[in-house]
From TrEMBL:
Recorded superkingdom: Bacteria
Gene Ontology MF terms: 5'-3' DNA exonuclease activity; 5'-3' RNA exonuclease activity
Domain Polymerase/histidinol phosphatase N-terminal: 7-72
Record lineage: Bacteria, Pseudomonadati, Nitrospinota/Tectimicrobiota group, Candidatus Tectimicrobiota, Candidatus Entotheonellia
UniProt xrefs under PANTHER family: EXONUCLEASE (PTHR42924), POLYMERASE_HISTIDINOL PHOSPHATASE N-TERMINAL DOMAIN-CONTAINING PROTEIN (PTHR42924:SF3)
Name of this chain's protein: Polymerase/histidinol phosphatase N-terminal domain-containing protein
Family annotation (Pfam families): PHP
Organism in which the protein naturally occurs: Entotheonella factor
Amino acid sequence: MPLYPSVDLHMHTTYSDGLDTPTALVAKASELGVWNLAITDHDTVDGLPEGIEAGQRYGVQVMSGIELTVQFEDYRDIHILGYDFDPADAAFAACIQRMQEARLERGLEILRRVNRMLGEVGKAPIDEQRVLARAQGAVARPHLAQELVEQGCVETFQEAFQDYLVPCDVPKATLSPQDAFRMVAEAGGICSLAHPGTLSSDPVEIERLLTTFGRMGLAGVEAYHHCHQPSFIDFLCQCARQLNLIVTGGSDYHGRPQGAVLGFLDVNKPVPESVWTELMAARTP
């Protein structure tokens, strides 16, 4: 495996909870030599037009992507990555619009709760219009964290979450796995289970989920992710082969100074080129 990145199938922009605009993200990818990528903002495709246009200018192939939140059994926050779909598909666009409206209301309710907490300790409230301008659409908790840091209420993102955003959290409005798989498939795309290691460390449970979701229409599993140890990556790749799933991977880059590095899983461990090859092969008729 080369020690430089060329592909990344999991990254976020200011249109969800990332800190880089789509243009800035693609420019950084170009500088690093990441020529194939997917922008996978949470529950929105609003940043795709800008990202694709930037890709044309910088010579980077930008694939349509999204990270959907679904609920299944006792799991309230499962993430599903959708790839290579038509974002203009009418049914897909209508569903995403509904999710965006719910996501915006969730973000604003968290903001209202945070402002109540700030008022109780004699601190100035966060300005809603500043947050909306920063978010470019759906307000996410990192946008609020950034405001809290810049306003001097806390020193770090970690403090912002610990002191304000976790206590003020609001449950997400989500889809079922079946609905997510169906809406992406009907728009011409395929789905991969994102970072399954965040769901469970039990191999038996992960295999059960992959088997169940595979029967529902899941096409892949994100084996390569910075939260996965090498042994777990090997296990997920083995599961994928046994269940006839493709293997995907990405940095889960958000642009945070101490977060994931674009194009990399870890130091000197770039996202393997094979994830792009497998995804392209899966989309070939």
